[in-house]
Structure formats: structure tokens, C-alpha cells
Amino acid sequence: MKQALILIVLLLCLNQVSSQKNNNEYCIINDTTNIYRSIDKILELSEFKNKVVYIDIWDTGCKFCIAEFKYAAKLKEHFKNDSIEFLYLCARHYDTRKKDTRNIKNEKLWKELILKNKLKGTHVLMSNDCYIEGYINKYENEYPGNIHWGVPQYLLVNKQGEIVNFLAPRPSMQEAVCVQIQKLLDEN
Q1: What span, in angstroms and rounded, lies between the C-alpha atoms of 153 and 59?
Q2: End-to-end CA distance of the chain
């Protein structure tokens, strides 16, 4: 009975998220099948082609991550007419006590936080493999000293789909992040 109730609640949440997506207010991508094994694979999606991408890696239990959301709205307003996309990657949503066991409560909270904070952009609920193998381990070897396990973390991607800054400024650092984004927008 409890599982059926959880399934109904999840379906209602997905329905609410889908209606928001239809209004072009949000673009939700729920990684329920682990189809994205790395950030590189996510960046291959059509919505990111020939665009600057500002990536926000966050966690539902991180108060610092959530506090930055209000500044992101100002950043989006500043660049509303530019070729930029905002990608939100929610990390570590699995039950850490049981390998590869989804944390349904955290997935529900993920969706609630997106809606509550009106986070316009593309959202991916990362698998453990995507976060650890497809991000931390992959780039730790290529860019020593730039990758860390903590959240929040912000990255900037150029129009060619290459991560060019693994330590981008937070949205609350408006001037610094605007300068870096504008520089990427101005590149050919």
C-alpha cells in the first residue's frame, strides 16, 4: 500500500513538472534510466548546441546551493537575449547505504525545489556513476586541482561544448560571472 501511495505521489509530481515544461517555463530531464553516463553526454543534447552553458552542480540537502538560486534569476534576466543555457545537475541522490538504490524522498524534494525556486533551465538528476565516474574521476586526471567533491560547484562551457572553467563564480558573484559569460558569448 505504501509503495502504491509513493508511486501515485511521484506520478502527480511528474504530471505537475510536465505541465510546467509545456509552458516552456522549465525543461526537466529526469535521469531515471541512467542514460547520461557523463556531463559530456548531457552537453551533447540539442539544447546546448552552439550555446554557452552555465552549469550548477547542487544537492537537495545543501543550503548554500539553494541560497544561490535567487541570484541565478538575476543572472538569467541579464542574459535573457543571449545564446546561453542554464544546466542544473543534482548530485548524490542515491541512498549511500545501499549501492545504486534510488532515494525516492530526495527525488521528490528535487522536483519540489525546482518548482518552488522557479528554476528555469535544464535539470538532470545525476546517477552516482555520472557524478563520480563521468565527472569527478574523469576530469580530476585531466585538470588536477580544479575538481572537488563539494557542492555547490559551477562550470562554464563554451559554444563548442567544452568545459572551459571548472571553478566558475557563483551566481551571487554577479559581476565576476557576468564578465566570464560575456567573454564566452563574444567568442566566435
Answers
A1: 10
A2: 57
Q: Is 99 exposed, middle or buried (0-12, 13-18, 19+ CB in 10 A)?
A: exposed
Range of the domain at 75: 2-186
- Round to whole Å and give the CA distance between 164 and 158: 7
Q: What is the CATH number of the domain that holds 101?
A: 3.40.30.10
Q: CA 154 to CA 88: how far, in whole Å?
A: 9
Radius of gyration of the chain (CA): 16
Q: Tens-digit pLDDT profile for the chain (188 aa)?
A: 555 544 444 455 555 444 444 444 555 665 555 677 788 888 998 899 999 999 999 989 899 999 999 999 999 999 999 999 999 998 865 555 555 556 667 788 888 999 999 999 999 888 777 776 667 776 676 666 666 667 899 999 999 999 999 889 999 999 999 999 999 999 97
Reported residue count of the chain is 188
Q: Is the Cα torsion angle 34, 37, 39, 42 positive or negative in sign?
A: negative
Three cell numbers written together for 116: 518552488
DSSP 118: T
Total tally of structural domains belonging to the chain:
1
The dihedral of CA 157, 163, 168, 171: what is its sign?
Answer: positive
pTM of the model: 0.79
- AA identity, residue 64: F
